[in-house]
Design goal:
Elements lengths: L2 H7 L11 H14 L2 H6 L1 H19 L15 H15 L7 E5 L5 H10 L2 E6 L2 H10 L7 E5 L12 E7 L8 H11 E14 L8 H14 L7 H11 L2 E7 L28 H16 L7 H21 L2 E10 L7
Parallel strand pairs: 1-2, 1-4, 2-3, 4-5
Antiparallel strand pairs: 5-7, 6-7
Helix pairs in contact: 2-4, 5-6, 8-10, 9-12, 11-12
The chain binds S-adenosylmethionine.
């Protein structure tokens, strides 16, 4: 085989994985999941890292650069609702130029870039996934003077105590092996009087652990989204307080959506536009089919379709969780580190 035909037959890969590593990464990921709660907690770094190595390209393709949900208003576009959900945090934290803000689990930098542009505050994003950090630098180039990144674990933030004027965590805390420890670490790096705001994924009061369908929904969300477990809203509030925060506000923002525009609508296929297609059931089935054919033709690495299947199952479970009201991805919290604010 000459070099040209070898290059042509080399499948396109995912993230920074070599094509031959995709299948073993999927298998390694599902092995950790299947080994149970303790193993998922113990190996949380590789569990989460493998997951984001596999799914980041799919997320960017189907969702964009902000990896979270949002309550939508009637007539509001999906993109505008994401931005408004981010701005809500900026307002609650009174972000402004000169403030130093930590974005805990910053993804590929979508929210951080938007909030830097919106508020003029300076951001540091911490993320344990190297590929996402690369992507985040790219997506925040226009505000690079306001955005810096740390490739690291938010369970052990490599920063001094009392350093930040505010912190945000948008749907990144669901991956924490221990919520209280994670919140304690954020508290440590905040200056006294500074606030932490974010959205967490939670089981609501409607969740019944004796209900087989509720348990099925919970399990499908966990396996499809690299979660060791899912806490209830009251457990998240309690963990913030046990960590040492003063809880100023805590509530589910899902009811803020127009009843016709629930947060899970984006996954249902009720919005018809070219850009929304990859998020819908039909678009997801098409992607799956393309990958199946693509794997046979060696256009995509073996294992790509398994990743897509995993994400599809999670998408159905998220819709079921939202419709039944047993799950929310937008439990909002605003918490303050006790102590007198610095001038
Ligand atoms: C659902 S994504 C949300 C990303 C981003 N906040 C956003 O809204 O676009 C969760 C993020 O948390 C990061 N993450 C999970 N566990 C982490 C850990 N222990 N340390 C640092 N980042 C972590 C993941 O790599 C991922 O980027």
């Amino acid at each position: 085989m000459n070099r040209t035909s070898a290059a042509r037959s080399k499948p396109r890969s995912l993230a920074n994985l070599a094509p031959d590593d995709v299948k073993s990464t999927v298998d390694g990921y599902t092995d950790i999941y299947d080994a149970g709660l303790e193993r998922r907690k113990e190996h949380y770094r590789s569990f989460v890292n493998r997951y984001y190595d596999l799914v980041t390209d799919f997320y960017e393709f189907g969702w964009g650069q902000s990896f979270h949900f949002a309550p939508r208003r009637r007539g509001e576009s999906f993109k505008a609702s994401l931005l408004r959900h981010q701005h809500f945090l900026a307002e609650r934290l009174s972000l402004k130029p000169g403030m130093r803000v930590l974005d805990v689990g910053c993804g590929v930098g979508g929210p951080m870039g938007n909030l830097a542009r919106h508020s003029g505050a300076s951001f540091v994003g911490i993320n344990n996934n190297a590929y996402q950090i690369e992507r985040a630098k790219l997506h925040t180039q226009d505000v690079q003077s306001l955005c810096r990144f740390i490739h690291g674990d938010y369970m052990q933030i490599p920063e001094e105590d009392d350093r930040y004027d505010a912190a945000i965590a948008i749907e990144s805390m669901p991956h924490a092996p221990d919520k209280t420890d994670a919140f304690r670490e954020v508290l440590r790096v905040l200056r006294p009087g500074a606030c932490f705001a974010g959205y967490d994924w939670c089981l609501t009061e409607k969740f019944d652990s004796a209900n087989a369908e509720h348990l099925r929904i919970k399990n499908d969300i966990m396996v499809g989204d690299a979660l060791p477990d899912i806490a209830s809203t009251s457990e998240v509030s309690a963990a913030l307080q046990t960590a040492g925060f003063e809880l100023l506000e805590a509530r589910d923002r899902a009811p803020d959506a127009d009843p016709e525009m629930p947060w899970y609508r984006a996954l249902q296929g009720r919005d018809l536009s070219l850009s929304s297609i990859p998020r819908t059931p039909v678009g997801r089935a098409l992607t799956n089919l393309t990958l199946r054919v693509g794997e046979r033709l060696r256009l995509f690495p073996e294992g790509s379709r398994e990743v897509c299947t995993l994400l599809n199952a999670a998408a159905y479970a998220l819709v079921d969780g939202g419709r039944s009201g047993v799950f929310t991805p937008m439990f909002f919290f605003l918490a303050r580190k006790p102590g007198p604010p610095r001038d």
